[in-house]
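User: Some background: our group keeps a shared notebook of sequences we're curious about, and every so often someone picks one and asks for a predicted structure to add to the entry. Today it's my turn. The entry only has the sequence so far, pasted here. Could you supply the structure so I can complete it?
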Amino acid sequence: MKLRCLGILLVGLILAHGARARDWTYIPSPQALPGFPPPAWSGYGPNNSTSALYMTESAVGLGSRDATIAGQAAICYVPDGSALPAAVEYDLGGVYNLYELYYWTPNYQGYQTSVMKNVEIAYKVNAGDSYTVLKTVTMAKGAAAPDVEVGPTNQDGTGDPVDLENVQARYLRLTYLDNWGGPYHEAGKFRVYKGFISIPETADFSGVQAGQPLDQVLTLANYGPAGKTGGIQSIDASALDGTAFSLVNPPSLPASLNSGQSLALTIRFNGADPNTPYTADLPIEYTDQYGTHLATVHLTGQTEDTPVGFALTPATHDFGTVQVGQTQSILIELSHDENAAAAATVDRIEIIGGGQLLTISAKPGLPLVLDPGEIAEVEVQLHAHVSGLGPLAASLEADFDDGVDARTLSCDFTALIAGSEPTFIPNVAATASTYYYETENYHPKWLVETEGEVGVTEVPAYVLGSKQMLHSSAIYLAQWYSTYLDPWEIQWVEFDLQQVYSLGQMWVWNLNFPGTGYFSAESGMKDVHVLYKTAVDDAWSTLTASGGGDVFTLAKAAGADDQPATNLHDPDLPDTWGDPVAFGGLQARYVRIQQASVAPGEGNWGGGGYSYAGLAHVRFYQSAPPPNAVGTGAWAIYR
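Assistant: Of course. Here's the predicted structure to add to the notebook entry:
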């Protein structure tokens, strides 16, 4: 995806959380989840929409509803060429009763119509849940007066904040459907506020034997600060009539709740029929700073069958984080109670899911007959392989039948497979023509460091050598930076891959120092030759650029945190980061990146008028991944 930025450096004020008061209903700094298109300019990603950057707070302190936003604050860009709608998900960090969303529209001169217009808001409680769409709202466009600080603009026409209707959620999804007709796609700042009266949204009574009552205590609480008073006005116990649920010793109402006070509500579940689901809804009327509201506690219950004598244990097993190349195993017991009246038959034992990572080497002859008191063990082995990088979810299933009851029992497996990106070439060594006065922070080794990396954030975190890695920005951060030479000389950095590979791609993160001048991203390499050879005594060969010729132009870094790979500069899209250097399967062990010129603006991106050169990180990838591997397991039966 080609990205675009306006290239404007903005100055903002970040308020320290510990130094100021905070609006107690403010939910600070929701974090954007992966999946949104990469920002067009470092710092203009979706997390900027929820940070205090470019915000001026009122006397209330951090999180104030009447804060103002700087006129030129470019907030979050959906990159040009990325079709709308564009959805971004935010993790609020905890489950809250959500009341309001305040919105500040960017007011950058000339781009007031590039801001988002219609926005769909959806929510969910758990990461694995599906989103529920709450509503679609129309946000106001930028103010007529350009570049002035503005307060919350909220909804078009009314200026009202978005009513989140007291939904209980941890995750919010904002889907930007369109803008006000401008050429760009800008999203603004928003803040989410919660109420102080907490009422659970659900209560679950699963795993209960039919006819056996089970009580559960719900806590209705005031979590507001001193001086904030609310209360419980009524609980409609009649809504539970004719259900499997009832209230035990209902409290006297209405009940006022001062800060820190709570009310205990005991609910009893008593399902009469086995293996049956039950549901009911309990309405609760309460008051808070917004007035009187009606909440509903959704009650669910599930009765179990009469207990049976056979079992599969454990029911779950987490292998934890397993590195590629490692093997772990677990013994699973299939058992039959010694007091059972008859034998149980097992006619299926099978791994479900997991690809080839989870296996059983052999199965007992099926059908397997388990007499009362008999135990069989199945050993399941996990073989971590690059083909399974990431979370793993699978299960072992076994079908039991004792002539009275038949069911499928299972053990659910989870694991996180961690390791290198499949084609990543590790253990690369780097040398350079010079490094800045032989200071350790600027040594070329940092370009290829894989142990104790500094400033490197792998994306996703469990993949070493990821192409989506993000690099930090700091003058003293470990990056290669050449020394000053007089007269100026060509600077280069050379890589020893330790063996000959069929090379696929070279990914480059250009020098990412902040600011301007020679000690900045402007000293990042620009026009370079890429040389390669298979043996140390061989003559260098020059790689041909995709458009012909032997000069590759490396893109300039932004000089800011969370810098993605910069790679090659695209002259048709000058403010973008482009494609990696392609080798097309050429055989090589040694690779050199060498300035094509010492002139500032040619060998580097200006360098403050000097010939300095530098890079932040370089990664090499083979032209094809290694083959998959298959694991094994074992079983045994005991009497």
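Suggested note for the entry: The first strand starts at residue 31 and ends at 32. The CA atoms of residues 273 and 634 lie 41 Å apart.
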